[in-house]
Amino acid sequence: MIKGFIFDLDGVITDTAELHYEAWKNLSDEMGWFFDRELNEKLRGISRMDSIKVIMDHNKVSLDQATVEELATKKNDIYVESLNTMTEEDYLPGAKELLTHLRAEGFNVALGSASKNAITVLKQLKATHFFDVIGDGNSVEKSKPAPDIFLYAAEKMRLPANNCIVFEDAEKGIDAAKAGGFYSVGIGPDERVGHADLRFETMKQATLFEVKSFFSDLF
């Protein structure tokens, strides 16, 4: 039986993708590196350190670890400053409604995000009360596609993986859910999250009614 829901943050609850893009673009321009929206897509769902490595690999750049960490921190500082512009209006359409319904029906709800700034984002959205457990980039060492963040969230909710549904918008996120033995709902195009158990183009379509209807034998 499904007793818990685990949500990714960016692209599921809210969309800070543009803020991340602008921060990486700012850093790349300063370093003289190539960076565009196509390359930015490859960063979806992965950690900050993995992201900067993708950008460096594309630009055939090699730097010592200390410099890489310094640049990743610089990008994060740019991003965190931009979070001040977020408000309660920045939920993706349908996300707040789904969280409200889950809370009303007594389900366990957790966050499973690679972001180390997840709590800051939730506070800006005034969304912390929706979550029993917050798993973020500080919670585990291995980021997606390793299932660790989802396993962490399930453990904290005291639920086995097969009692939980993961909501993800990234290919690596669905990979992580599958690796951990979770049921999965993909948000986005088929070429990105078509391997999820159930897929919606947008969060607005991903109502609790639709999810329950698809997984009817699990409720």
Notes on the protein architecture:
Helix content is 44%, strand content 11%. α3 packs across α4. It is of the alpha/beta class and 219 residues long. The N and C termini lie close together (6 Å). Strands 3-2-1-4-5-6 form a six-stranded parallel β-sheet, sandwiched between helices.
Structural key phrases:
alpha/beta; 219 residues; 11% strand; 6 strands; 6-stranded parallel beta sheet; globular
Number of strands: 6
- The string of secondary-structure elements, in order, is EHHHHHEHEHEHEHEH
Shape: globular
Structural class by helix and strand composition: alpha/beta
Q: How many DSSP H or I helices?
A: 10
Concise account of the structure shown:
The protein has 219 residues and is of the alpha/beta class.
What's the layout of helices and strands?
Blueprint: E1 4-7, H1 17-31, H2 37-41, H3 48-58, H4 65-82, H5 95-104, E2 108-112, H6 118-125, E3 133-135, H7 148-156, E4 164-168, H8 171-180, E5 183-187, H9 190-193, E6 198-200, H10 208-214
Parallel strand pairs: 1-2, 1-4, 2-3, 4-5, 5-6
Helix pairs in contact: 1-4, 3-4
